[in-house]
Amino acid sequence: MRLVYIALVVCVGVAMASAPDFAISDEPTQQGPEQVSSSEGEAVSSAPYTPLDLGQRYLYALDRVVGPARLVGFVAHSGLDQVWKKPEQWGSQPESFGYRVASRFGDALLKETIRFGISAADGEDPRYFRSGHGTVWKRTGYALGHTFWVHKDDGSMMPAYSLFLADFVTPAVTQQWRPGPFTGLREIRSGTLGMGANALTNVWQEFWPDLRKKLPNRFQERLTRGLRGI
User: Fold this and answer.
1) What is the tally of structural domains in the chain?
2) Which residue, of 65, 131, 138, 166, has the greatest Cβ tally within 10 A?
């Protein structure tokens, strides 16, 4: 049991460290259509806003399913489910862990497929664009607001329909392969928690480049080498 806890702590730590780097380096963070931020969070000049084409949008969705941080997250979450026996009908045998990993993976695959399809149809840009300036409270409000309000391919803003539907439809569908009856309230709660997780992710992406610059140079170098080895 102690080994399980140690492994989970390591997995969660790696996931938290690697997820922002993945998002910042692969998602060109920008403030509006005229300014972007570098991988270190510093404002740099940029060409006008460029939307993703269909292929780029698909690769973005694929990365959110099979990217290194996501895969580590599946293992970490499944390990916690195994310890807490969630759902209890799957038991605590070694094969139960495989069921839980497969369920977590299926959940992410379904959610990103729904989000990809809807965003491709209505022109939503699934990326988060950092503000990078202002007070902590203003930047936090910006990050939370952009959970529900996203860029459109023409540079304007629109409601995040794909995010709403993906977060609330996915729990209802995945309950079809998980033990236990469909209750409605549980699925609504899962969707709400998913939206909350998206909001926290935006806040993390907003402030992580600033926090990283404050780390000692030696620690930054070790962190960078560790992430490249994942």
Assistant:
1) 1
2) 166
